[in-house]
């Protein structure tokens, strides 16, 4: 009998394995629960793959951008607002991977381990999310894009709030075009991408800011040096073509004229190593995120570069790719004396009753490390750019520091860039404008930036 | 109101579920499976007492048994003593040397009761239990006897040496006993001067009962013949120990 | 003479408060079902009140007859069956009545089997006929069965469909256990191995892999309990593994049934459909659930049988679902404790293997539908809808109960102290 009884202890092993299984299950519920609940197959939240039940999304002024009613998801009543805020808010089906509907779906539905989706099910209410964007400004920015692809974004470099965020092409979520998946003309290319976060662009001349930063930090006599531009610059068996023949110019003039010959020479002086070092200090090749939204990583890689490639890289061509968010933050760093505030789009989350459950705390960007001295020097260089070369008259009432870019791309017209910021403590805004295949930055991107900035200025007064 | 009740009941079912489980666990923790001694086996040779706490007890030479008998004539798995609905039983589990109840070999399974001597091979044990059997030896499966009947002494059969002249019997409760004049050394004491202090040994093995002279002065006779070594004795044999005549009776009816 | 047999101290299970709690629990859950169901049937109301009445009557009668209070097992069984009944009713009112009848049958079977099991000698005599009957039943099953959801484990007699493999589970434990004297005199377990191989083999032919797996696991437990020989067990497992590999080699369709294991999200709308929905809705319930009848999982196929754990999580809450599966762990711990003092090795083996069977089946169901183990489609004991399964569960409970000596002290008469 004692043997039989002793053998019954094998059941303890069975129980132990059973409890182990329960532990795994519970851990999975805790860790993966939010992902599971917000899966599109969940009929508590989705119907036919489209989100139906979730909390409201509002802009900074309380304008409702998206809400649920009677088991259906609705958007703002104005079509231009719907289109302009689509990529920030996200579509119902979650195709826009960086949209709030997708990235914050668990929070938006009010799901938590304790209550599950009970409140959503019972009262049709989830958590509300209040954004930092201004829907009116976005709508205007969308109109300013005037059908061109690209994106416009403006953020307050003192607080980190992104007030304007528009990506085009876009569509109206209430009347989604039926030909969106079948179209071959290219008008819907990358329509589900928020170009601000996911777009990777050749920077072109705006990269000269990075090269300048490297020069200021590493070439002590950069301000007294003279560079010769004969319309092109030969190096390492290749030739960097310039946009003009500038003759003998100083560093300051080189940036103002955006002289490729001069910057190729600066690049040559610096060499691969110092260029890479500075680029990485300024956030290239570093992971980046806006809240919980993942931003594509800007790339600067000279490991396979031959001599001429360094020249091209110095003026923002070669293999270098940047995301607009990164450029925006870099502008914030220069404007803010070296330390950038992290940009964010979600101001706070509130429960259905209205109490704030989560509020974004402003933080400094850790991936961009710019010396204060360098930042100030860059700031005055960029101020000179606008003042002397682009003309302050193009920004009435504003004091803008900026750099245009015309990035050559393999297919079609160059991308038009304009990045910069307002050097005015009472109007602390940095901006980025990119228009795909739209020609020169100066003539195309600057007016868009001005329109948006004027609008923001108007709303502040 | 209904809304409020629904809220309450949502939590209530989980809470009650947990309470039910906790109540059951508390009861389980409180419950101690205390084993009581249900019977005793006392060795007739050494007097060693072993208690039986289980309802089924395996006996054998193997360490896997509940009671390990390190004895040459005990098989590895010799027998099982079990307490069943009506009585205690001993079951021989195909041992080589057999199992005996009061010297009677059992076939497979037999009921036992308080006071029985169980022999595993030649290892004999007295069985004691507070449980009273409801079955008699002859009719195992008859209806249980009434409580009043149980108290009446039942006939018990043991092997015995009968002294006709003195009209008394020496019951061989043990499977191995020494006969002689000395009180301390002998199990059966014959206070007769012609009997040596340690006269003879009478024991039981697989062949049956064996008598052996222990170097007595007067000698031991079986059916009138003087024995020298070990001699097997059978029923009704006359044994003469230094003039004391005893008759060997294999099945002696003893009244309790 | 000293008193040897001291009366075993009666353990004090506070059965009355627990019964009260369970009744309140059931009233709350039944009312929620009633409130959620439109045009509630009178029959359903009858089922609910009938269930509570029968439950209370059972404990009252059992208490009066046995004068004992060790009702933990029945209490748990009634608790779980009540949840199962409410879930069945919340999905389809027709289910409730069938489930109610099954619970009554199960209870009757429990009482009857308990009485049979009291006599070890009778049980030992019945083993052979039961074994033959069980194999015969399985053979009849495979001859008469029509395919249902990929398996052949249902037969229909006069409009009532039964699942013979569930009944054979009872026979499997019944035949597998043996008394100590039987174990000592017949060292080999050859006969039982033949019986087990026959059962598992026929189940494989029926393509009921879940039940086959349960049988195999129970067999391992019984074989170990009987022989204690770990080498033999390892040998058996190795042989079974080899057999399984051979089957997969010759019949590749078997493997495809398990292809989605650990990859359910890649097959979200085909083979992984049920598991992913279970996970989604289980998590959606949160700790306290979305309320009975408010779930979405109930519309998924087999929601009240194979996926019932998901329904528990979603509508009743993860907390209660974990209480429910902890109940099975409780039953097993109870078994270990009572097996120590059981009357015969038969009860020790039978109770341990029955508890292991329930536990393993519970694990296969719960961890199967949540993709921690392969999804085999077995029922959750006591909770899942299904008549034969319910009867089997109650029968398993009577094996476990039989080891509890407090319910079966032999009717030997105590010797008086004075003597």
Walkthrough of the structure:
- The complex is a heterotrimer of chains A (461), B (256) and C (419).
- By secondary structure, chain A is of the alpha+beta class.
- Chain A has 15 helices and 19 strands.
- Among the domains of chain A are: 37 residues; 243 residues, Beta-lactamase (3-Layer(aba) Sandwich).
- In chain A, the strands form six sheets. In chain A, strands 5-4-3-6-15-16 form a six-stranded mixed beta sheet.
- In chain A, β13 and β14 form a beta hairpin.
- Chain B is mostly beta strands.
- Helices cover 13% and strands 40% of the residues of chain B.
- Chain B has two helices and 23 strands.
- Chain B starts with a helix and ends with a strand.
- With 419 residues, chain C is mainly alpha-helical.
- Chain C is built from 16 helices and three strands.
- In chain C, strands 1-2 form a two-stranded antiparallel sheet.
- In chain C, β1 and β2 form a beta hairpin.
- Chains in contact: A-B, A-C, B-C.
- Chains B and C meet through α1, β3, β5 and β12 of B and α1, α3, α7, α14 and β3 of C.
Topology, number of strands of chain B: 23
Name the shape of chain A in a single word: globular
| Helicity level of chain B | 10-25%
Structural class of chain B: mainly beta
Strand count, sense and barrel status of the largest sheet of chain A are:
6 strands, mixed
Kindly report how far apart the N and C termini of chain A lie: 92 Å
- Radius of gyration of chain B from CA coordinates: 27 Å
Q: Please state the structural category of chain A.
A: alpha+beta
Shape designation of chain B: rod-shaped
| Element order of chain B: H for helix, E for strand | HEEEEEEEEEEEEHEEEEEEEEEEE
CATH topology of the domain at 198-343 and 364-460 in chain A: Beta-lactamase
| Oligomer class | heterotrimer
Number of strands of chain A: 19
Tell me about the biggest sheet of chain B?
A: 6 strands, antiparallel
Low-confidence parts of chain A? none
Biggest interface, residues from each chain: B-C, 57 and 67 residues
């Amino acid at each position: 009998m004692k043997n039989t009884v002793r053998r019954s202890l094998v059941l303890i092993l069975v129980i132990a394995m059973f409890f182990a299984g329960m532990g795994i299950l519970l851990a999975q519920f805790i860790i993966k629960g939010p992902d599971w609940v917000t899966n599109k197959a969940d009929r508590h939240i989705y119907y036919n793959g489209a989100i139906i039940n979730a909390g409201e999304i509002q802009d900074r002024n309380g304008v409702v951008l998206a809400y649920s009613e009677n088991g259906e998801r609705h958007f703002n009543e104005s079509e231009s607002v719907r289109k302009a805020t689509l990529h920030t808010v996200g579509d119902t089906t979650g195709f826009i991977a960086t949209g709030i509907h997708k990235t914050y779906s668990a929070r938006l539905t009010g799901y938590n381990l304790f209550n599950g989706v009970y409140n959503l099910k019972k009262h049709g209410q989830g958590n509300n999310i209040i954004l930092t964007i201004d829907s009116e400004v976005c709508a205007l920015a969308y109109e300013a894009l005037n059908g061109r692809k690209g994106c416009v974004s403006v953020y307050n470099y003192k607080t980190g709030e992104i007030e304007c965020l528009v990506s085009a092409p876009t569509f109206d979520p209430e009347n989604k075009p039926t030909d969106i998946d079948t179209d071959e003309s290219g008008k819907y290319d990358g329509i589900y991408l928020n170009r601000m976060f996911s777009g990777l662009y050749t920077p072109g001349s705006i990269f000269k800011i990075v090269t300048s930063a490297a020069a200021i930090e590493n070439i002590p006599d950069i301000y007294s040096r003279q560079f010769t531009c004969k319309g092109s610059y030969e190096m390492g068996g290749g030739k960097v073509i310039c946009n003009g023949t500038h003759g003998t110019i100083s560093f300051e003039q080189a940036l103002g004229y955006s002289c490729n010959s001069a910057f190729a020479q600066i690049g040559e002086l610096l060499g691969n190593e110092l260029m890479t070092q500075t680029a990485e200090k300024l956030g290239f090749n570093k992971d980046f995120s806006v809240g919980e939204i993942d931003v594509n990583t800007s790339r600067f890689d000279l490991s396979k570069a031959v001599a001429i490639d360094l020249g091209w890289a110095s003026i923002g061509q070669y293999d270098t790719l940047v995301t607009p968010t990164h450029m925006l933050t870099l502008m914030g760093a220069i404007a803010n004396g070296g330390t950038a505030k992290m940009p964010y789009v979600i101001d706070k989350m509130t429960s259905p009753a209205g109490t704030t459950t989560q509020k974004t705390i402003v933080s400094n960007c850790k991936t961009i490390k710019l010396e204060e001295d360098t930042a100030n020097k860059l700031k005055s260089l960029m101020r000179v750019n606008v003042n002397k070369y682009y003309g302050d008259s193009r920004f009435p009432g504003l004091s803008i520091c900026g750099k245009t870019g015309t990035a050559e791309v393999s297919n079609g017209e160059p991308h038009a860039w304009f990045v910069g910021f307002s050097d005015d403590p009472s109007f602390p805004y940095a901006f980025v404008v990119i228009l795909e295949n739209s020609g020169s930055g100066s003539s195309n991107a600057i007016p868009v930036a001005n329109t948006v900035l004027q609008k923001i200025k108007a709303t502040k007064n | 109101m209904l809304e409020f009740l629904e809220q309450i009941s949502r939590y209530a079912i989980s809470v009650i579920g947990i309470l039910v489980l906790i109540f059951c666990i508390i009861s389980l923790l409180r419950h101690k499976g205390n084993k009581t001694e249900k019977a005793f086996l006392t060795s007739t040779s050494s007097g060693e007492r072993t208690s039986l706490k289980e309802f089924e007890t395996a006996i054998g030479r193997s360490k896997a048994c509940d009671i390990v008998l390190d004895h040459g004539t005990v098989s590895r798995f010799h027998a099982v003593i079990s307490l069943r609905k009506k009585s205690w039983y001993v079951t021989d589990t195909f041992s080589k040397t057999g199992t005996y109840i009061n010297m009677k070999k059992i076939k497979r399974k037999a009921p036992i009761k308080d006071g029985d001597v169980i022999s595993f091979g030649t290892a004999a044990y007295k069985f004691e239990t507070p449980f009273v059997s409801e079955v008699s030896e002859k009719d195992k499966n008859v209806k249980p006897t009434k409580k009043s009947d149980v108290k009446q002494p039942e006939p018990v059969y043991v092997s015995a040496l009968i002294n006709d002249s003195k009209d008394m019997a020496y019951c061989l409760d043990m499977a191995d006993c020494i006969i002689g004049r000395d009180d301390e050394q002998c199990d059966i004491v014959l206070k007769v001067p012609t009997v040596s202090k340690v006269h003879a040994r009478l024991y039981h093995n697989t062949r049956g009962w064996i008598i052996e002279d222990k170097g007595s002065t007067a000698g031991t006779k079986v059916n009138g013949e003087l024995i020298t070594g070990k001699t097997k004795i059978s029923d009704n044999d006359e044994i003469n120990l230094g003039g004391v005549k005893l008759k060997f009776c294999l099945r002696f009816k003893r009244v309790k | 003479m000293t008193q040897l047999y001291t009366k075993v101290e009666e353990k004090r299970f506070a059965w009355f408060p627990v019964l009260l709690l369970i009744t309140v629990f059931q009233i709350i859950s039944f009312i929620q079902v009633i409130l959620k169901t439109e045009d509630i049937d009178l029959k359903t109301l009858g089922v609910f009140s009938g269930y509570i009445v029968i439950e209370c009557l059972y404990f009252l009668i059992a208490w009066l007859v046995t004068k004992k209070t060790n009702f933990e097992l029945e209490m748990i069984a009634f608790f779980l069956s009540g949840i199962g009944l409410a879930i069945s009713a919340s999905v389809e009112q027709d289910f409730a009545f069938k489930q109610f009848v099954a619970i009554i049958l199960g209870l009757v079977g429990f009482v009857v089997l308990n009485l049979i099991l009291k006599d070890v000698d009778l049980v030992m005599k019945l083993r052979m006929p039961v074994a033959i009957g069980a194999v015969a039943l399985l053979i009849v099953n495979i001859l008469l069965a029509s395919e249902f959801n990929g398996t052949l484990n249902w037969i229909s007699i006069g409009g009532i469909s039964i699942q013979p493999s569930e009944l054979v589970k009872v026979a499997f434990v019944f035949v597998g256990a043996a008394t100590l004297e039987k174990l000592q005199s017949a060292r080999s377990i050859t006969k039982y191995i033949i019986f087990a191989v026959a059962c598992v083999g026929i189940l494989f032919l029926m393509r009921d892999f879940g039940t086959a797996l349960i049988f195999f696991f129970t067999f391992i437990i019984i074989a170990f309990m009987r022989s204690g020989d770990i080498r033999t067990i390892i040998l058996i497992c190795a042989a079974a593994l080899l057999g399984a590999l051979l089957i997969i080699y010759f019949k590749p369709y078997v493997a495809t049934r398990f292809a989605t294991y650990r990859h359910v999200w890649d097959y979200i709308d085909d083979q992984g459909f049920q598991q992913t929905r279970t996970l989604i809705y289980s998590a959606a319930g949160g700790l306290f659930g979305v309320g009975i009848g408010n779930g979405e999982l109930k519309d998924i196929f087999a929601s009240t049988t194979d996926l019932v754990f998901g329904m528990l999580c979603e509508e009743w809450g993860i907390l209660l679902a974990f209480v429910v599966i902890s109940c099975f762990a409780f039953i097993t711990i109870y078994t270990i404790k009572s097996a120590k003092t059981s009357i015969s090795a038969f009860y020790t083996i039978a109770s341990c293997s029955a508890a292991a069977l329930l536990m393993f089946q519970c694990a296969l169901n719960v961890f199967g539908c949540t993709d921690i183990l392969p999804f085999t489609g077995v029922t959750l004991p006591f909770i899942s809808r299904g008549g034969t399964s319910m009867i089997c569960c109650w029968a398993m409970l009577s094996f476990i109960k039989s080891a509890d000596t407090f319910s079966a002290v032999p009717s030997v008469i105590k010797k008086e102290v004075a003597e």
